[in-house]
Structures are given as C-alpha cells and as structure tokens.
Amino acid sequence: MTEKILCASMMCANYNHLENEVHSLENAGIDIFHCDVMDGSFVPNMAVSLQDIISIRQNTKKMVDCHLMIENPCEKVQWFIDAGCDLIYIHPESERFVSKTISLIHKAGRLAGLAINPDTSIDTVREMLGLVDYVLVMTVNPGFAGQKYLEFATEKIRKLIDLKSAYHYKIVIDGACSPERIENLSHMGADGFVLGTSALFGKEKSYQECIQELRG
User: Fold this and answer.
1) Could you give the CA distance from residue 52 to residue 74 in angstroms, rounded to a whole number?
2) pTM strictly above 0.90
3) Is 174 a catalytic residue?
4) pLDDT tens digits for range 39-59
5) Which domains are seen in the chain, by residue range?
6) CB 76 within 8 A of CB 45
7) Are 38 and 47 in contact (CB under 8 A)?
8) Catalytic residue among 36, 52, 65, 191
9) Would residue 65 show up in a list of annotated catalytic residues for this protein?
10) Could you say which of 52, 65, 174, 191 is catalytic?
11) Contact present, 139 and 145 (Cβ < 8 Å)
12) Distance (Å, rounded) from C-alpha 153 to C-alpha 137?
C-alpha cells in the first residue's frame, strides 16, 4: 500500500474564513487542495469560483487542482492555468477534442487529469489514459457533496488499478470517501482520495486529527 494522497474538497470549506481554512488544512497535512468548478450546465450546480482558486493559491504552497465540470473547457482552461492550478481535470464528455485540451495543459507545464463519471465506460476513454498524469474516478454523480457511494464503481476502480502500470497515471477517488472506504480502496491500489463531508469537513474532530487517522 502506497502513501495516501489526501485532497481537501474545497467546496465543503467555510468561505467566511477561507484564508484560515487553507492555513488550517495545510498545517494539518493535506496534500492537495481540490477545487470543484461547475458552470450550472455540465452539472446542475455552481461551486468554487476562479477568484476562490486564486485566493487558495495565494495562501498555500501545496498543490492546487481544479476539477472542471464545465462545457468546453478548452475555451477556459487558460484561466485556471493563470490562476496557478498545478493539476487540471477535465471530463471526456465535456468537449469534442479532449486530447487538444490535455496538450494545452501540458504545454503550460501543468499536470493533466481525466475525470471519469460513474456511467462512463473505461473502454470509451482507454485511448486517453496514456495522455494524462491523474485519473479522477467519480464514485458519486458529480455536482453535489454528501451523496452515497455507488457500489458498482468499485469494479471500475479495480480495472483502472490494473491498467496503471501500463499507462503510468495516479488514481484519485472522488465521492463518499469515508475512512473505511479509503482504507479498503487504498489497499486495492488507489493512490488518492478527495475528502469531503464523509471524512474531513463538519466533524467534531480537528482537521489534523482527521488526517492523522486517515494516514493510519
């Protein structure tokens, strides 16, 4: 089992005190600040804004990623590069020429990721797996926090773990990542986890206590 990559889902943070939230999470040992960007069209919700990401970037030296749940990310990806995102995830369903956007991200010196929805088959994205650095596996339908884990996603995770050595990406799990689920999937071979209300935010324990327990 490799060291877990723990990513804070910033759509769950307290935006009345965003600077303090970022500092508290960094001091607690979070690895990546995960920013969900939604346009109200690709998914029926709005979440972390570009200005929020800029603020997060200014207050941490840790990695900042953005998960673009938006239509035609090729037209807007430069915004997030300029905002200082280290890793940018896009959905293959969101535009026609996915490899072009991945290339733009890499040409800017950033890491590229592919986000795979629960109902997206691995067979439809297999040709793109060798182009990206990270694969974000959605284990809930994208757009909202606090959903239940979709059990059928486990088999997809297992298949993507089997393909890792051939394509050389890291797998991050996003959705209903409870401590028990994190432990099980980590033993299977998943690399990272997006932490929301199931494991980090809204708990009686401090961020540091939560993260220490997840590290084992």
Assistant:
1) 20
2) yes
3) yes
4) 999 998 999 999 999 999 999
5) 5-215 (3.20.20.70)
6) no
7) yes
8) 36
9) no
10) 174
11) no
12) 8
